[in-house]
Amino acid sequence: xxxxxxxxxxxxxxxxxxxxxxxxxxxxxxxxxxxxxxxxxxxxxxxxxxxxxxxxxxxxxxxxxxxxxxxxxxxxxxxxxxxxxxxxxxxxxxxxxxxxxxxxxxxxxxxxxxxxxxxxxxxxxxxxxxxxxxxxxxxxxxxxxxxxxxxxxxxxxxxxxxxxxxxxxxxxxxxxxxxxxxxxxxxxxxxxxxxxxxxxxxxxxxxxxxxxxxxxxxxxxxxxxxxxxxxxxxxxxxxxxxxxxxxxxxxxxxxxxxxxxxxxxxxxxxxxxxxxxxxxxxxxxxxxxxxxxxxxxxxxxxxxxxxxxxxxxxxxxxxxxxxxxxxxxxxxxxxxxxxxxxxxxxxxxxxxxxxxxxxxxxxxxxxxx
Length: 369
Known about the structure:
Elements: E1 3-4, H1 8-13, E2 17-21, E3 24-29, H2 33-42, E4 45-48, E5 53-58, H3 62-69, E6 82-88, E7 94-104, E8 107-112, H4 117-128, E9 133-136, E10 142-147, H5 151-157, E11 171-176, E12 179-184, E13 193-198, H6 203-214, E14 220-221, H7 224-233, H8 268-277, E15 281-288, E16 299-302, E17 311-322, E18 327-335, E19 344-349, E20 352-359
Parallel strand pairs: 1-3, 4-14
Antiparallel strand pairs: 2-3, 4-10, 5-8, 5-9, 6-7, 7-8, 10-13, 11-12, 12-13, 15-18, 15-20, 16-17, 16-19, 17-18, 19-20
C-alpha cells in the first residue's frame, strides 16, 4: 500500500491530481503543469517533497564515514554547509545522488531519493560498519520546497531569523511562528529557493503559513510534474532515468563531483581508471528540430543521409516539452564521437524519425546565475 505525506489532505482539498510515485501518493499537478512551471520561473511556488529520504549518521566517525561513501568531499564541509554528491558502487556505478548536510563534527544527514531510501539505508549501514550510528530518519521530517525568484522575500517575511544572507548550499535553523525548521538554500528547479524541514505534525501549519504569506507574491502549490520539467530544463539528473547503477558520474557529466585527489572513497579506483582511459559514452542535451516530443526510452539514432532513422546509438533518458523555451528537449546517452554540440541525430518517436541536435547544456539558466 502506498504511503502518504503529512500534507495529503491539503493536496486533496486543493484539488490536486494525486498519483503514486516512489511508493507515495503525491500531487502531480494542481492548476496545471505549465502554469505551475512558469509560476516557479517568474514568482514562487511551493512543493511537498516529504517523500524524500533522510538518513542520519552520528558519532565520532560520522564525517569520515560519510566522506568514504561519496565521491565529493564531505570532510571539507563546515557546520551548516550542504554538498551535492553521488554515492557509488566499487565499479563506479551510481547507488544514488544526494545532498549531505554537515550538522556538526559528529553529525551528518544524507537526503536521498524517495525510491532509494531502503536500498540507501542498507548500503550506508553496511559500508560504515561500526564507524558511526546510521538511522533512517525519513519518517521524522516533513520537507517543503519553496522555489522561485520571490522565495527569499517570502520566507524573510515570516521569520525573524536572517535568511536573505544565506549562501547557496548552506542551511540554518529558523522559526516560523512557533514552528522550528531547518531552511536549506537548495532546490531542484534551477531557481533560488529553500528546502524547509520540520516535524511532520507541524507540516500543515507551515504549509498554511507559507501559502498565506505567499499570496502577495503570487504563490501557487506545485506538483511533481512541474518539478520534473523544471529540473530537466537546467540539466539536473533524475535517478532511475538519467543515472543509475549502470552509469558513472563521468558519463553523466557529474565529473565535477568526483574528487580523486582527496581521501579514498568507494568506487575511486574504478573512476580513476575511467577518467584516465576516457568514457565511451556521454549524457547529452538534445533539442528537437522537428515536431515530436522525445520521452524516456525512445531510441536515439544516427540518421541516414535522407534523414531517416538509421541505426540506434542510444536511448532518451528524460524528455519533455519545455514550458520556458516552448520547444521539445531531452537528454540521453550517446557514443562520445556523437556527443559534440551541433551533432545531428534523430529520435524514434513511435516509429517517426524526429530530427534532433546535440546542444550544450543546460537548456535554461536563470537571469544573473
